[in-house]
Specification:
The chain is α/β, with parallel strands linked by helices. It has one domain: Alpha-Beta Barrel (TIM Barrel), CATH 3.20.20.70. The protein has 9 helices and 11 strands. Strands 6-5-4-3-2-1-7-8-11 form a 9-stranded mixed β-sheet. Strands 9-10 form a two-stranded antiparallel ribbon. The chain starts with a helix and ends in a 15-residue tail after the last helix.
Length: about 280
């Protein structure tokens, strides 16, 4: 499987990152959440630490170059800092977080990441607290701004992710000024539109995805393997299966074989422009 996977990556038909949805549990209920995550969610769809570590170890052997971990809120898992350290010892990792759960104890736990190829990607949608919190929840803005310098002080790389719905160019420019002032350069600022899946369907937010708008990147959840991280979504409490690759996630070679068969009709070439990456 390694050779055909590396060929698909070289041809631009697939990405070299394995995505993992660690949990759909979250302390926030963002209006545009892909997975309908929330504090009171009953089906948390959690991947256990050993499952995550096994998947990353197998991914390395199959030619994957890096890993992304998302949710829900990954730090709702009490042992996630240790899990993150263990997978970062295998492959470079970016972990997506809302940045609101970084107590002093958790920050001390994260000090074990120093020197490893790992980054934390925090969500921040506006330089205006009220505008930001309208989409994400009261107090989110202040928590994120307090967390960023504390992570940087510990030499943990920070990225900022901005999800765009109705922000003006001036508002986005103000946000860029803010993240630069916090020590996060433009190269570590990711901006994308709201995708109309999950809770965004109910809220009537975002853009519809076309069949070739997103670079396929094998994505694992407790429900199965999916085409990309925008595919593993939930609506009305039910997992969307339109972009399901396989119910089986391990051994990783099994969903990867099916994934490669499905990406055969993807556009080829490094110059292919997709609307979301």
């Amino acid at each position: 499987m390694r050779e055909p996977f590396e060929q698909a990556v070289a041809e631009g038909r697939a990405g070299d990152r394995l995505w993992l949805y660690a949990t759909y549990h979250c302390n926030l209920a963002c209006r545009y959440c892909l997975t309908e995550s929330a504090p009171g969610i009953l089906n948390r769809r959690t991947l256990g630490a050993e499952t995550i570590i096994r998947a990353v170890r197998e991914a390395r052997g199959l030619g994957f170059e890096k890993v992304g971990v998302t949710g829900g809120e990954v730090f709702m898992l009490p042992d996630f800092a240790e899990t993150l350290r263990r997978i970062a010892e295998l492959l470079p990792v970016v972990a997506l977080t809302n940045g609101t759960l970084f107590t002093e104890r958790r920050l001390r736990e994260l000090e074990a990441l120093t020197g490893l190829d790992v980054a934390l990607q925090l969500s921040l949608d506006s330089a205006d607290a009220a505008q930001n919190d309208k989409l994400r929840g009261r107090g989110n803005f202040d928590s994120v701004l307090a967390t960023i310098p504390r992570l940087i002080e510990r030499e943990i790389p920070v990225r900022i992710a901005t999800t765009v719905e109705d922000q003006t160019p001036d508002e986005l420019a103000a946000l860029c000024e803010l993240h630069r002032s916090l020590g996060v350069p433009d190269t570590d600022h990711i901006v994308r539109p709201v995708v109309r899946r999950g809770r965004a369907v109910t809220e009537r937010l975002g853009v519809e995805l076309g069949p070739h708008d997103v670079l396929p990147e094998l994505t694992l959840t407790a429900d199965g393997a999916f085409m990309h991280p925008f595919a593993a979504t939930v609506r009305g409490g039910v997992t969307d299966l339109d972009l399901l690759v396989s119910r089986q996630i391990l051994p990783l070679e099994a969903p990867l074989r099916r994934f490669l068969a499905l990406v055969g009709d993807q556009p080829i070439g490094d110059d292919v422009v997709r609307s979301l990456r």
